[in-house]
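Subgroup meeting minutes
Present: P.N., E.W., G.H.
Scribe: E.W.

1. P.N. recapped why we're keeping a running log of single-chain structure predictions: easier to compare across weeks, and new members can see raw inputs and outputs side by side.
2. G.H. added today's entry (238 aa).
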Amino acid sequence: MAKGDRTAARHLLSHAGYRYPNALAIYWGARLGLMASLGVAGLLVTPMLGGGVVGAMLVAVWGAVLGWVAPTLYVGKRARARQKEIQRALPDALDLLVVCVEAGLALNQALVRVSDEIKRLSRLTGEELMAVNLEIRAGVPRDEALRGLGERTGIPDVRSLVAMLIQTDRFGTSVAQALRVHSDTVRTKRRQRAEEAAAKTTIKLIFPLVLFVLPALFVVILGPALITIYRTLNEFVR
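Output recorded in log:
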């Protein structure tokens, strides 16, 4: 197995929330096991159903491909769902962080408070922030703990937040002001994404409109006219 494949799989599992030590081994074992089991099942079951040798081979190949791809699809779907939830809760978490910092709390204490409060809105966001707090308490430098947050989530907005906090801590600038500016930026991006999704809705409605709505509309509008024309032609022929 190539090192790049292991790294990509480890990042995918981390984004999906599978971070225990043997997660990578279970992931590759599931892919290999499903590939072998579905392939063998295709070879054995297809002849019982009346299929020939060629059909059994085709079913076995498709089963093996499905078994190899299915775990990746599942983990990827879970990772996207987690990222979407964290992305949705990030502006509110930043607002809480700004309030805590402006109230006089240090950044570490502010992260603890926000991780407790944001769980009501997003459990995953609270857990990620709590993981940062636990790493800092365990002696991990704050910049490394924050970088770990960006790597675990894989969200560009979180990574930019981490970079901003590290630079602010390094150069001694105002954390509250930087957080407020970043919060406004994240909210602007969220509004732009919502507007983009709304603009794409029109294009996505074209296919259901053409396939389902327009045929029914044509039947309702042209149906009576066609029936009248048919009856008139029958009377004319008679």
